[in-house]
Design a protein that fits this description.
The complex is a heterodimer of chains A (196) and B (222). With 196 residues, chain A is mainly α. Helices cover 68% and strands 3% of the residues of chain A. Chain A has a two-stranded antiparallel ribbon with strand order 1-2. By secondary structure, chain B is of the alpha/beta class. Chain B is built from 8 helices and 5 strands; from the N terminus they run ααβαβαβαβαβαα. Classes of the chains: A mainly alpha (196), B alpha/beta (222).
Chain lengths: 196, 222
Amino acid sequence: MGPLIPNEIIPVEWNFVLAILIGMAFGYIMEASGFSSSRKLVGVFYGYDFAVLKVFLTACLVSLIGLSYMNYLNWVDLDQLFVQPTYLWAALIGGVIMGVGFLAGGFCPGTSLCAVGIGKIDGIAFTIGLFIGIMIFSELFEWIEPIYEDYNLGHVTLDETIGISREIIIFVFTILAILAFAVSDRIRKRTKKIFY
Amino acid sequence: MSARFKTKRILVKRSYQFLAVLLIILSGGLLLLPEIQKHEGLSPEYYVKNMLSTERYISTDELADRIINEDPALLIIDTRTTEEFKKFSLPNAINIPVSEIFNPGNNLYLDQEVYDIVLYSNDHFFAEEVWMLGNRLGYQRLYVLQGGLNAWFNTIIKPTYPDQTMSNEEFERYNFRKAAGKYFGVATDTIEIITEVKIAPTPKKKVVPKPKKKKRMPEGGC
């Protein structure tokens, strides 16, 4: 838990306690803002509710800008952050499957557990399906493996790939996100109001 | 739409606008911040921790074992002067004197992550110097032969005979060193390790017939 533990402000044993507290806060806020409702979640696709888009983009922006300032103040070393390796085929196919599943089931994996937490039957059905999917994937992994591990681009980041400084990308991303908020608001006003 | 609802809507909108402006200012601020000079390489704390750690040492026994087993991931570097290197060196060692450690040609050997590099000198001080400089430059997998060639002579080439009261491990180590010495060209003999205590068979009791005392006739004497 940077920057508190690496700077020895709190001992390392707090890692797990903080993880549990942050996890609980995350679940609570997600539920409180209506993310356990599949109608709200799929609203992005139908254009009557853009809460998901706004929440995720805002979270991205806050962490991006916050981490950059912490890096500047030497509280956190950005070069030590783990960057997920990019497997192009896996990302593309997985993204499509995830999107279809999201739209058909009305949840993403995290929010489905959130719905299970408050006892929603559709959430429970979705989670059972999730585990069946995991089982099928594991059983067929030998066949899927060549595609799964193909086209590994390594730990690539946008600034290194394009060759533009990280700060410019953050600024452009912020502007784009705010534009997306404004545009999504316009779309929401034009679509028919749905009460749920 | 009531006036109250309208004002509420405007307030919500204003808070959104405020957040949007805040995000733009903060991300724009990142662009305007002056460049900062970051410490390159190791942090002082990490460096001190590395210096105090004894993990960098490798014993002469371990090195001998790895040389004999032809460990493919082993690279031995002699840090003494070229004259000394010509007189004697460990098998397959490469000579990089301390004074030439920054020679760009030597980076090929030192700056890599494939081999375990064992540095040695007569004692371990020159090797330690190279280790410290290499560590500062971020080189990986550098080790120091503890005691250097002096320890090598005292352990592998001319091991001291263990005391009789010492444990079996000491004798085993002695034998290993003698055998290793043979590999490196020293002719000596090994001693037998006592693994089992042989108990001598109990001798059969010999029955020694006792000569019966003959009854003496009472001797009279008067």
